[in-house]
């Protein structure tokens, strides 16, 4: 099946600042795809580029077979989008928002909007200006869902919302996925993402650190904690492994690695300098922290440290 | 930022059919689908779910638990291959006739595994077999003395007389064979209670 979203080496600069630095990814149809990353990592820029609000400096994007840079209007009819700060006319009532939006979409929009708004418990005659933040978010979600989009895009949909509103956002996402539609969301709420996502992409500093099905990520990545007897002796060879993060605290090492296995664990356990070794499966939060906080600088410092240690011994 | 032990009371299984509460903790290390599998098995073992009962569709349960539908699908597949659920064409999934027996056995297995983990941790932390059995005895005593007080009388439990649990038993064998004998004992006691 064709991917719903295909991004190829996307680069976006604001002035001299590079916000997207060669991002490539594919979102398969019918999945819940989560973009995780700290504030300012480039998630919103990526999302807004997907919808044609920004033009890329280089690279290409294809969403539902359309190039958003050229045919943004056509695309916006097919994609439901809830931004983190939805722009709505404050003087309209809840029902007027639906009536106004229905003018841009095919028939059936208005009915679906009314039933969604009722389902969310929105007061039809209250003006948007007088709604709480959670209610406004629900109006935006109802508008996005009423068009029954092939692709629903949610930019930090649940930040700052109370648990009940977050819950209805999660239910809507799950419902879309069960109906075979695609959902793309960005979030910091790791626990929520862990519940609903099929695929996860972690973004830092405009670069994609990893894109993988959540299940694969959780089953192939391990957190290894090794305690040494002497911290000046370097750890065994790790070049066969993919190290995502390496941290040292005294005689203890904590590695987030891909490709760890029983044989390696036994080999490390048999090392005279290693007194204890433990392996656990990471939660998404562990992975997120490993990718966002423990990036390459740690690996460099580890190399530097082991070199120092070697020279001290010789 | 977000609660560490987010425990939501979730999911009333399909309104008039039956109700059962499940709680999912996304980041406690156990995959979500396994949490669901486990809770369904426990419910069948306890009799909250009975053979012949319909369970909710994948879509309904996904919505109720706010969990990805593929995760629910995976849990149902696992439950099918464990002979707990079977699909009735056109009607959905029902609890199998023989499921109760499987589930009680599997529940015992799950408890045994968890106790084995505790045993392993205790051995690693330096307790020897006798100390560990002492700790285990105290824990069991504590539980049953609470129950005895609640019942207002003394109940002579077979566990109290079990020679296996006496702290004076001589220690023999390797850790591995210890663990096996512990496992056998655990199995024996929990079957005795169920």
Strand content of chain A: 25-35%
Strand order of the largest sheet of chain B: 1-3-2
- Strand arrangement, largest sheet of chain A? 5-6-7-3-8-9
Query: Mind telling me the C-alpha Rg of chain B?
Result: 20 Å
Describe what this molecule looks like in 3D:
The complex is a heterodimer of chains A (314) and B (194). Chain A contains eleven helices and 13 strands. Chain A has two domains: 5-213, P-loop containing nucleotide triphosphate hydrolases (Rossmann fold, 3-Layer(aba) Sandwich), CATH 3.40.50.300; 217-313, 2-Layer Sandwich (Alpha-Beta Plaits), CATH 3.30.70. In chain A, helix 3 runs antiparallel to helix 4 (109-119) and helix 4 (109-119) packs antiparallel against helix 5. Chain A has helices at 43-50, 72-76, 94-102, 109-119, 133-146, 163-178, 190-196, 214-220, 262-270, 284-292, 296-313; strands spanning 5-14, 17-27, 32-37, 58-63, 79-82, 151-155, 182-187, 199-204, 207-213, 221-228, 242-249, 252-258, 274-280. The radius of gyration of chain A is 23 Å and the shape is elongated. Chain A is an alpha/beta fold. In chain A, helix 6 (163-178) links the parallel strand 6 and strand 7 (182-187). Chain B has two domains: 1-97, Arc Repressor Mutant, subunit A (Orthogonal Bundle), CATH 1.10.10.10; 114-193, no CATH class. Chain B is 56% helix and 5% strand. Chain B has seven helices and three strands. Chain B has a three-stranded antiparallel β-sheet. In chain B, strand 2 (85-88) and strand 3 (92-95) form a beta hairpin. Chain B is elongated and about 55 Å long. At the A-B interface, helix 6 and helix 7 of A face helix 2 of B.
List the helices and strands and how they pair.
The complex is a heterodimer of chains A (314) and B (194).
Chain A: E1 5-14, E2 17-27, E3 32-37, H1 43-50, E4 58-63, H2 72-76, E5 79-82, H3 94-102, H4 109-119, H5 133-146, E6 151-155, H6 163-178, E7 182-187, H7 190-196, E8 199-204, E9 207-213, H8 214-220, E10 221-228, E11 242-249, E12 252-258, H9 262-270, E13 274-280, H10 284-292, H11 296-313
Helix pairs in contact in A: 3-4, 4-5
Chain B: H1 32-46, E1 54-55, H2 58-65, H3 69-81, E2 85-88, E3 92-95, H4 99-124, H5 129-151, H6 158-161, H7 175-193
Antiparallel strand pairs in B: 1-3, 2-3
Helix pairs in contact in B: 1-3, 1-4, 2-3, 4-7
């Amino acid at each position: 099946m064709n991917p719903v979203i295909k991004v190829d080496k996307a680069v976006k600069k604001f002035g001299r600042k590079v916000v997207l630095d060669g991002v490539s990814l594919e979102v398969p149809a019918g999945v819940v795809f989560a973009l995780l990353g700290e504030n300012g990592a480039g998630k919103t820029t990526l999302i807004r580029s997907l919808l044609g609000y920004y033009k890329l400096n280089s690279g290409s994007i294809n969403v539902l077979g359309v190039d958003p840079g050229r045919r943004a209007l056509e695309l916006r009819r097919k994609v439901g989008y809830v931004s983190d700060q939805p722009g709505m006319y404050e003087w309209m009532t809840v029902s007027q928002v639906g009536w106004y939006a229905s003018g841009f979409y095919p028939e059936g929009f208005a009915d679906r909007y009314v039933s969604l708004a009722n389902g969310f418990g929105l007061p039809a005659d209250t003006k948007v200006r007088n709604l709480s933040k959670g209610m406004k978010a629900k109006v935006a979600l109802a508008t996005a869902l009423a068009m029954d989009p092939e692709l629903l895009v949610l930019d930090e949909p649940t930040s700052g919302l109370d648990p009940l509103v977050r819950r209805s956002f999660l239910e809507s996402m799950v419902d879309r996925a069960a109906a075979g539609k695609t959902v793309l969301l960005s979030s910091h709420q790791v626990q929520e993402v862990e519940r609903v996502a099929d695929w996860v992409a972690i973004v830092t500093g405009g670069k994609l650190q990893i894109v993988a099905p959540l299940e694969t990520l959780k089953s192939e990545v391990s957190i290894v904690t090794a305690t040494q007897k002497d911290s000046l002796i370097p750890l065994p060879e790790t070049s066969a492994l993919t190290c995502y993060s390496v941290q040292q605290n005294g005689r203890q090492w904590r590695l987030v690695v891909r490709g760890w296995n029983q044989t390696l664990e036994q080999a490390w356990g048999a090392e005279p300098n290693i007194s204890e070794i433990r392996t656990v499966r990471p939660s998404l939060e562990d992975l997120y922290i490993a990718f966002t906080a423990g990036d390459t600088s740690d690996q460099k410092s580890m190399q530097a440290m082991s070199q120092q240690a070697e020279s001290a011994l010789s | 930022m977000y609660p560490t032990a987010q425990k939501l009371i979730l999911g009333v299984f399909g309104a008039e059919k039956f109700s059962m509460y499940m709680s999912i903790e996304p980041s406690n290390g156990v995959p979500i689908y396994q949490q669901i599998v486990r809770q369904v098995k426990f419910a069948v073992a306890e009799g909250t779910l009975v053979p012949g009962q319909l369970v909710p569709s994948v879509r309904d349960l996904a919505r109720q638990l706010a969990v990805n539908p593929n995760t629910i699908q995976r849990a149902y597949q696992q439950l099918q291959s464990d002979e707990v659920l079977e699909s009735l064409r056109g009607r959905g999934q029902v609890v199998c006739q023989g499921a109760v027996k499987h589930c009680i056995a599997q529940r015992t297995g799950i408890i045994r595994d968890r106790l084995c983990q505790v045993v392993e941790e205790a051995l690693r932390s330096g307790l020897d077999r006798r100390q560990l059995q002492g700790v285990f005895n105290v824990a069991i005593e504590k539980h049953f003395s609470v129950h005895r007080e609640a019942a207002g009388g003394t109940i002579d439990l077979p566990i109290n007389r079990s020679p296996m649990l006496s702290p004076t038993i001589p220690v023999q064998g390797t850790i591995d064979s210890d663990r096996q004998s512990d496992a056998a004992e655990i199995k024996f006691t929990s079957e005795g209670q169920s």
